[in-house]
Specification:
By secondary structure, the protein is α/β, with parallel strands linked by helices. The chain has helices spanning 42-53, 72-85, 141-161, 189-194, 199-202; strands at 2-7, 30-33, 58-60, 88-90, 94-98, 101-106, 129-132, 135-138, 168-172, 209-212, 219-222, 228-231, 248-251. The strands form three sheets. The protein has a six-stranded mixed β-sheet, covered by helices on one side. It has a five-stranded mixed β-sheet with strand order 4-3-2-1-13. The protein has a two-stranded antiparallel sheet with strand order 7-8. The chain is globular. The termini are close together.
Length: 252
């Protein structure tokens, strides 16, 4: 039985003394982090995850805030190098096997469809750049949707190729289902930015567990087919009162 320690959205850059985040590690086999650990500085985030996990495996994905004040694909290329130095399994359309579980993951981004009809040329409002020939421009809704389509296709392929011999754990930063959004926020821009409808993947029952972040609220729900969706975010300044810094999920 594998014990997974689940964390996301620590936003350590918002804490006056981030190095003081030193929870007593619960009994665990793999630390799973669903992004937004340290805004604009994934290397520092990976170092924190390695400190928390000690010598045990770490699996994580980049959050959107890891990309802040950077260029998406350049950030990701550097993050792969920094993660490898810390012995962290950074997933982006890739997979890893630890403690008898198969992990697949990606940032995911969002397609903004849950917000209704939006101008694809409109900026998302995030200080994230996307490269274009001769330079870069701020992330637009159309850019985010394109990143989402590529990530979703890669994730669907990874899930389809999982042979079922090991429990499958999916890790994304953005939420994979409309039900992950608080009822009061459904239908508006925040809904589009937060989640996309991946029901075909979440409800197929191929994954034992789907871990995500981004929405800054704790949730634990089970979809048709048996996939459990879990979010355990601290939020900026650890504003989420339901955050559990010792949350562990056991998988057979």
């Amino acid at each position: 039985m594998a014990k997974l320690w689940i964390l996301s959205d620590l936003h350590l850059e918002t804490l006056p003394y981030p190095d003081n985040f030193r929870p007593d590690p619960p009994p665990f086999d793999v630390l799973v982090a669903a992004g937004d650990i340290w805004e604009g500085d994934p290397g520092r985030g990976f170092a924190v995850l390695r400190r928390l996990a000690g010598t045990k495996p770490v699996v994580c994905v980049m959050g959107n805030h890891e990309h802040w004040n950077g260029v998406v694909h350049e950030d990701l290329a550097l993050a792969r190098v920094l993660a490898a130095r810390e012995g962290v399994s950074l997933l982006d359309g890739t997979g890893a096997v630890h403690a008898g579980c198969r992990f697949v993951g990606t940032t995911l981004w969002s397609d903004y469809r849950l917000a209704g009809a939006l101008d694809p040329a409109a900026q998302t409002g995030e200080p994230i750049d996307v490269a274009h020939p001769g330079g870069s421009h701020l992330l637009t809704i159309g850019d985010a949707a394109a990143l989402h389509r590529r990530a979703r296709a890669a994730l669907a392929g990874l899930i389809a190729r999982a042979d079922g011999t090991l429990p499958l754990v999916v890790v994304t930063h953005h939420a994979p289902h409309p039900d992950c959004i608080a009822p009061a926020q459904r239908g508006g821009w925040n809904a589009g930015n937060s989640a996309s409808d991946l029901s075909a993947l979440t409800d197929a029952g191929r994954a034992a567990l789907w871990v995500h972040g981004h929405v800054h609220r704790s949730l634990d729900l089970t979809r048709p087919g048996g996939t459990r969706i879990l979010c355990n975010p601290a939020g900026p300044g650890f504003a989420n009162p339901a955050f559990d810094d010792a949350l562990v999920v056991a998988l057979d």
